[in-house]
Design brief:
By secondary structure, this protein is α+β, with helices and mostly antiparallel strands. It contains 2 helices and 5 strands.
Length: 125
């Protein structure tokens, strides 16, 4: 629903609305999650590609602190057919796996709350 090449005019408006809603929620989440005084050492950001939204941390590289490295945190995927979001977690090789403790939801907030709660430590360690 974030992007669909064959979307109708009405569907296209829904895509734009959904994308803006997700951007607003994640921008606020990222700003609130990392205190201002540590942002020179740690940042939280996201990237939207198609129907996938990837949340990641950024930290200065160990041997070259002027370069920042990305560490995958979570991925949210929107299924156009059932209009539900699914949550994915990354393994140590940055491969994505369906997070089994939460069923897909029409409400993006359900997934974001689960990432923030992080009951298993899979997202933030």
């Amino acid at each position: 629903m974030l992007t669909s090449p064959a979307a109708s005019c009405e569907g296209s408006r829904a895509n734009v609305f959904t994308r803006k809603l997700v951007e607003t929620k994640l921008t606020k989440y990222c700003e609130q999650k990392i205190p201002l005084h540590v942002r020179n050492q740690l940042r939280l950001n996201y990237r939207i590609r198609g129907n996938q939204v990837t949340l990641f941390e950024e930290r200065p590289a160990f041997k070259k602190p002027s370069s920042w490295v990305e560490i995958s945190v979570a991925q949210f995927r929107f299924n156009i057919r059932d209009k539900k979001w699914s949550l994915y977690c990354a393994d140590r090789n940055s491969r994505w796996h369906l997070y089994g403790l939460l069923v897909p939801s029409v409400d993006f907030d359900d997934l974001l709350k689960e990432v923030d709660r992080d009951p298993t430590g899979i997202f933030f360690g």
